[in-house]
Design a protein that fits this description.
Length: 383
């Protein structure tokens, strides 16, 4: 018989109200933990965040699968006692509030540890504990910039347009949530072995620093100078997104092998001989990049994204299709892996939920229930 989940039998209380903490709780809930979401009167802020469908937040629907909901006013003495009873039987507490809120609610690391020494307390904040309080109100775009990740998104943005925010407005929250869930599970294993809880301090900006790539490495090595120019951290070369007949493809070229493979793929048109065979390595000038893009744009516009990218990859060319949200649930590899699971939502009907990038034979990740209705588990919490 298949287990409910790898974390079955563990109870997690989530007082988090930002994406970082809610995503932490979602990862634990999807692995089988009982996650009880404590919401303020009126509901969690993410219930009012778009995008919306059928009058409901799709963000909240994604972040809160497999959870329970209890509404508590933590400034009220009676409701605070309900929270204390929940914590007394829980194994972990997930939070993402600033230090001022924690003090006001009596949920500082010191207070939680004193009252519940056998509890794993994970707190996710923009800059970690002991940072200046003014920094704790930072938004994801601030964290992404402070952690060095924003250098990619301003690339090639027109000078009269604001910089882009990169891969979604909550990139830093999701990344921090992954680390927070991992650290929480490691602490839960320690709790099982030693019977001792601990405090886990997650800094969102340090998570970003741990994800640095070759552009930041080049800066740290002294090979590239930091700059506030929007194109300062481009990888170089002609790579970018190009429109094709049925969507877009993304091309990255940095070597002679890439160029020769692409020329063969295009049938070695005459214009390619205007560029040196090693131009990507030794003659990658703005005029040559512009010349390439001008000719390539016309050719790729006549191609279909899936057949041409498959042919390109077989030719050793780093070209991939740009997948839309509509494309992904039908992608043959994701279908084969069962990455998207169908589940019913009371407002949306049947929904395709993305799950996990791994498969566990005995305890697979499952979407067992949609995001909870507000205060749906209040009687259970008070029992």
């Amino acid at each position: 018989m298949t287990s409910r989940g790898a974390l079955e039998g563990l109870t997690v209380i989530e007082v988090a109200e930002r994406v970082s903490g809610e995503y932490t709780g979602k990862l634990l809930a999807d692995l089988g933990a009982e996650v009880i979401k404590v919401e303020r009167p009126g509901g969690a802020p993410t219930r009012t965040m778009g995008p919306f469908a059928a009058g409901e937040s799709t963000l909240f629907a994604y972040l809160n699968t497999n959870k329970k909901s209890v509404v508590l006013n933590l400034a009220d003495a009676a409701d605070r006692k309900v929270l204390d009873r929940l914590l007394a039987r829980a194994h972990a507490l997930i939070d993402d509030h600033d230090a001022g809120w924690s003090r006001a609610m009596g949920l500082t690391p010191e207070a939680v540890s004193a009252a519940h020494p056998a509890l794993v307390h994970t707190l996710v904040t923009p800059f970690g504990q002991d940072a200046p309080e003014g920094w704790q109100s930072a938004r994801p775009i601030n964290v992404i910039a402070a952690g060095g990740w924003a250098y990619h998104s301003p690339s090639e943005t027109p000078a009269d347009k604001p910089p882009l925010k990169g891969a979604g407005r909550f990139l830093s929250d999701y990344e921090a949530g992954i680390d927070a869930a991992l650290a929480t599970m490691a602490s839960l294993l320690r709790l099982r072995r030693k019977g001792q809880g601990q405090f886990v301090d997650i800094s969102e900006v340090e998570v970003q620093l741990n994800r640095i790539d070759c552009v930041l490495d080049r800066m740290l090595a002294g090979e590239a100078e930091p700059s506030d120019a929007r194109t300062a951290y481009d990888m170089g070369g002609p790579g970018t997104s190009f429109a094709c007949r049925d969507g877009h493809v993304f091309l990255l070229m940095t070597s002679r092998a890439h160029w020769k493979g692409l020329c063969a793929l295009m049938g070695d048109p005459d214009w390619t001989r205007e560029l040196r065979e090693d131009w990507l390595e030794f003659d990658c000038t703005p005029p040559n990049v512009a010349k390439f893009r001008e000719h390539f744009t016309g050719w790729i516009a006549r191609q279909d994204k899936h057949p041409i990218t498959e042919a390109a990859q077989k030719a050793g060319v780093a070209m991939v299709p740009v997948q839309t949200a509509e494309d992904l649930p039908r992608h043959e590899q994701f279908v084969h892996r069962g990455f998207f699971q169908q589940a019913m939502h009371p407002a949306f009907g049947e929904v395709s939920y993305p799950t996990a990038a791994y498969r566990m034979s005995a305890t697979p990740v499952r979407i067992r229930s949609a995001a909870p209705e507000l205060d749906a588990s209040r009687q259970e919490a008070e029992a």
